[in-house]
Write a structure and sequence with these properties.
The protein has helices spanning 2-26, 31-39, 63-70, 89-93, 122-125, 259-272, 290-295, 313-317, 336-343, 389-394, 410-416, 435-445; strands at residues 74-85, 98-111, 117-120, 130-134, 140-149, 154-158, 181-186, 194-205, 213-216, 228-230, 236-243, 254-258, 278-279, 282-285, 303-308, 324-328, 331-332, 351-358, 361-368, 370-371, 377-379, 382-385, 402-407, 423-427, 430-431, 455-459, 465-469. With 471 residues, the protein is an alpha+beta fold. The protein folds into three domains: 61-275, Thrombin, subunit H, CATH 2.40.10.120; 278-373, PDZ domain (Pdz3 Domain), CATH 2.30.42.10; 376-469, PDZ domain (Pdz3 Domain, Roll).
Length: 471
């Protein structure tokens, strides 16, 4: 019996010693962990720098405030068109076309004034015979098309209402920065406004020539076109326009027309009825070209001036071929899309301070911007201009003619073969020495002059002379 009691006591004593040793030497004190859990509601992130900085609530963008300022000002836009097609077997056999209204497309829009002006994409309302607007409170109105700018994909609408409408104020898109938080707000399904968040991934993106988009990773899907891109203050910094996708749905990047460009377009439409395009008056050498590599300017920071129009603001102010444009109004310019995007925000006769590098010397030259129509002639759905000086110097035989800068005339493009860069040298036997000679035909015949053309002589891009006789 004594042996059993002794064994029990020894076992109990051993257990106590083991428990004490574990508590003293093995088990960790969890008091700090408990305090940490009760004093923070944020997960702990591993910092990417050595500063051991923690993310706090004050450092997070207030996206709720931005969303609340915007959602009621974003609307649903419906595009109704007339469809002509046979409706019955009788229509088919009699070759009869029946007109019928049908919904052709839909998108989003942004109210920009309390009296009902709405900005959207041109492609959302293109071809519409009726445009209807549904507000975020489900009220519906018929809209009037005030004006469009197809080149920048912007349209201005107007609805009539006795009530003052919620609207979004324009922000300064030039002041946005890569990495800045933005919200994409749209009304794609005629339900209520939807909001997605992201950051600005890049600026001055040129997708197909002559564009200057803001790129963001905020999700934008079909139906969001024409919606708002706003900063954390709820200010409009862009109009969502395009997505980069092979499937037609969002896969990571979307693009918006900068608000400064959109605002200038709207102001022009409201004041003049159309967009007043302005130009600096220079031709730029793109870095990826063979000529840029040969000149050693394919890695420069800035825009290399390859030619200057002597009649435009740049030529009058003294900018020369070979100059490198570094800044416009103290804004750094590294590529042509940045230059063209900034110029698009300006108006006729605005003065832009152009900082250039000439040799090893920096100079700032004030340039008065020129209206595009003063240098280019819109005629027969084509755009004509003078032959660039650089081309004349390189090819002395180009002593007369006018250059095609844009051809939207389907007949002349497909049937005649006229392309951008071709030079028209004579029409109906009359030699064209300058754009003024072509303007004489426009003033006499108007845009229907194509019916009066009997013969056309031109040089193709290889400077091969061709003549077309019209019968």
């Amino acid at each position: 019996m004594k042996k059993i009691l002794t064994l029990v006591c020894v076992s109990a004593l051993g257990g106590l010693l083991t428990l004490g040793g574990y508590k003293l030497f093995v088990e960790k004190d969890d008091t700090q962990i408990a305090n940490t859990e009760t004093t923070t509601q944020l997960p702990v992130y591993v910092p990417t720098s050595t500063s051991n900085a923690l993310l706090t609530n004050t450092e997070r963008p207030d996206l709720i405030t931005a969303a609340n300022k915007t959602i009621d000002a974003v609307v649903h836009v419906k595009n109704t068109q007339i469809n002509k097609r046979p409706q019955t077997w009788g229509d088919i056999f009699s070759n009869r076309q029946v007109e019928r209204k049908q919904l052709a497309g839909a998108g989003s829009g942004v109210i920009i004034s309390p009296d009902g002006h709405i900005i959207t994409n041109n492609h959302v309302i293109k071809g519409a015979v009726e445009i209807s607007i549904t507000l975020n409170d489900n009220k519906t109105y018929m809209a009037e098309l005030v004006g469009t700018d197809a080149k920048n994909d912007i349209a201005l609408l107007k609805i009539d209402t006795e009530d003052e409408l919620p609207f979004v104020t324009f922000g300064d898109s030039d002041a946005t920065q890569i990495g800045e938080w933005v919200l994409a707000v749209g009304n794609p399904f005629n339900l209520t406004s939807t909001v997605t968040a992201g950051i600005i991934s890049a600026k001055s993106r040129d997708l197909s020539g002559g564009q200057s988009f803001i790129q963001t990773d905020a999700a934008v899907n079909p139906g969001n076109s024409g919606g708002a891109l706003v900063n954390v203050n709820g200010e409009l910094v862009g109009i969502n326009t395009a997505i980069s996708s092979q499937t037609g749905s969002y896969v990571g990047y979307s693009f918006a027309v900068p608000s400064n460009i959109a605002r200038k377009i709207v102001e022009d439409i409201m004041e003049f009825g159309d967009v007043q395009d302005v130009i600096l008056g220079i031709s730029a050498l793109r870095r990826e070209t063979k000529e840029a590599k040969e000149l050693g300017v394919d890695e420069i920071q800035g825009v290399y001036v390859s030619d200057v129009d002597e009649k435009a603001g740049a030529g009058i102010a003294g900018i020369k071929s070979g100059d490198i444009i570094k800044k416009l109004d103290n804004i750094e310019i590294n590529k042509f899309s940045e230059l063209s995007g900034y110029i698009k925000t300006k108006s006729v006769d605005d003065i832009v301070n152009v900082e250039i590098l000439r040799g090893n010397e920096l100079k700032t030259i004030p340039v008065t911007l020129t209206k595009r129509e003063e240098l280019y002639l819109e005629f027969m759905n084509m755009q004509f201009g003078e032959i660039p000086n650089a081309a004349k110097k390189k090819f002395p035989q180009l002593d007369a003619g006018v250059m095609i800068y844009k051809n939207s005339n389907r007949y002349f493009y497909e049937e005649v073969g006229l392309r951008e860069g071709h030079i028209i040298t004579a029409i109906n036997g009359k030699v064209l020495k300058s754009i003024d000679d072509l303007n004489t035909f426009k003033e006499k015949y108007g845009n229907d002059f194509s019916k009066e053309i009997k013969s056309l002589e031109f040089l193709d891009r290889g400077l091969n002379r061709r003549e077309i006789i019209f019968k």
